[in-house]
């Protein structure tokens, strides 16, 4: 990481509610206290309670804590210091930790055992752990509901989702979750399907049943939750990750006392890879820029193409596109990146070549910055705008047009991973393949943190627009975010390998019939701030001057957006640095708290 200090726990808020009190006490006091004492004794500089939260189930500290009942701890040291200094300080912290474990072994093992038996008791009672905050001055903003949760269920009656169900059950089993399968239909009086109200339901035989009354109760809730109930709106990373929603599976929960007829499921194998169609189209991947957002999005895509789909593709650069590299390409994949960098790198020849290729029959599939680039090139008439909401790495239900080729094997709904993404509106409703439900309707549901999300209501999530002899498929979100979003990967599979939505030839990009709508799309895209991984801070407008002053102390460059009584700061991050490498993200979070600023949302890059 950047800076010149050492980090170890305690961590900053938020903390996931199912992390046990023992785990937090061990890392904050037993280990954290001893580490602080020894580093103080040796005059080694360090910091705690900054940058790193303990929330998302995606890291090598939160996962061991929640899944194994351990004291998951992150140790990081500035990478600019000499290797001998870094090595020595890691040596010190590791030996302090090992020594504390040895000195306190009986007490640790006794409490570790008690945590597993307490987890089982909570599962029997249907009790979820409450939300808490650890840092002085913070308050719980979203309590965990008090209603009981005793069972989770995964439906298995959709043949097109069989592999996804198998993959998720296997994922649970691999961290010792006991999974059962109903051998007879089960009447559930209070079944709550994901994002739906409670309703009496009869679940068919073959449904997977995951009872909470087992030692892995905390991990089950972490994986199968409907919502993460964010206690405090600071995010080092994502705020929603419910695995059934990521897989786009039907299921839900119950708090009733039930005695299902069921049998234990033996360990399941990894499902086989999907078979590619014949013939396989010629696919190219265009990474738009060299910053963090482009590298990550393209890297996730390369993993999906190479390791999961085993689909051949060729990378193409801006200069290669300008030189005619798309001549024999059927599908061009354009993941996230900075669109203005790509447009400039393509130059007049590359931009013209890309437009001509789409008009001539090419299929352009782009998302996030890739959608923005399409608007700047004039190959889409979709209107893009910056979000005014704070939706930090969150799952949101979308509705599919089941007549669209993009909806094949998807079903009537899917879940997109929305993370401060663009808002997209189609110039023609017939172009919309997936859309956000009307805000306030029974279909509109968010899993994770969101404020102002109603602005997405009724807007497009995925557009399939015919252009000339080709077409443009755009997603406002990344359909392959970290290669997690299996449900949206199916939409991407259909976009790459499926048939065209419209047979025949449509109006060409640049033609007179499209001129007005293309001009509107270009104008909308031109107003978007194409920033590389900015730091985002939303506060009440009454606190805007205080934030401006703090940013000034760090020499930060920022732009602001005001929405009603809220002001959002987009802090420039030229190097595309992550939160732990950012030169002042950690200090700024503490400064905001010290200044008494009520933070509505804080998202580290």
List its salient traits.
single chain; seven-stranded antiparallel sheet; Rossmann fold; ten-stranded mixed sheet; 4 domains; 605 residues; alpha+beta
How much strand content do the residues show? 15-25%
Count, helices: 15
Number of domains: 4
Structural class call reads alpha+beta
Shape: globular
Q: How many DSSP-defined strands?
A: 29
**Biggest sheet features:** 10 strands, mixed
Level-2 CATH architecture of the largest domain: 3-Layer(aba) Sandwich
CATH topology of the largest domain: Rossmann fold
Q: Extract low-pLDDT stretches.
A: none
Q: How would you state the average pLDDT, rounded?
A: 94
Report on this model:
This protein is an alpha+beta fold and 605 residues long. It has 4 domains: 6-125, no CATH class; 151-258, no CATH class; 283-385 and 425-435 and 460-526, Rossmann fold (3-Layer(aba) Sandwich), CATH 3.40.50; 535-603, 2-Layer Sandwich (Alpha-Beta Plaits), CATH 3.30.70. 32% of the residues lie in helices and 20% in strands. Strands 12, 13, 14, 15, 18, 19, 21, 22, 24 and 25 form a 10-stranded mixed β-sheet that branches. The longest helix is centred in the first third of the chain and has 21 residues, at 21-41. The radius of gyration is 25 Å and the shape is globular. It starts with 5 loop residues before the first strand and ends with a strand. The mean pLDDT is 94.
